[in-house]
Design a protein that fits this description.
The protein is α+β, with helices and mostly antiparallel strands. It is 44% helix and 13% strand. The protein has a four-stranded mixed sheet. GO terms for molecular function: oxidoreductase activity.
Length: 164
Amino acid sequence: MLRNILYYFLLIILVISSAAVIASSSKGQLSSKQCEDLGFTGLALCSDCNTFSEYVKDKELISDCLKCCTEDSDDSITKITYSGAILEVCMRKLVFYPEIVGFIEEEKDKFPTVKVQYLFNSPPKLIMLDDEGQHKETIRIDNWKREHMLQFLQEKVKPNSASS
C-alpha cells in the first residue's frame, strides 16, 4: 500500500515537472529581464548559440541561449541604434573596474546622451534607451575594456541633435 502511494506520488511529480518543462519551452523568446537574470544580454546572435553548443554540452543552457538570441541577418544587429544610454554601476564596486572608471572620468563627456547612474550593488551595465527614453536593452559590461565601450557607444548611440 505504502509502495503504491509512493509510486503515484512520484508519477504526479513527474507529470507536473514535464508539464512545466513543456510550458517553458513553448514560450519561445524570454524577456530581456529573464535573459539578463540568466546571464545573456540579448545581443548574442543565434549563430553564436550554435557555436556555443559545440563547446558546452548543457542542453538547458543552450536552450536558454536560443531563447535570448537575435536571428542573424545583415540588418538585425548592425543597424540597431539607441537614443541614449545609462551606465549603471555601484559606486562602492568601482574600485574593481578601472576601465569603467577611466571611461567615466575621461571619455563619458564625448557622449552627451549617456548618463551615469550609481545604484547600490549593481553590476556595471549599459541600459540602452529608445527615442522615448524607455529601457530597450541591458548589457553587462563587467569585463569590457575602455576601447570596447567607446566603440560600442559610437556605433550604437545616435549623436545628439545639437551635433548633427
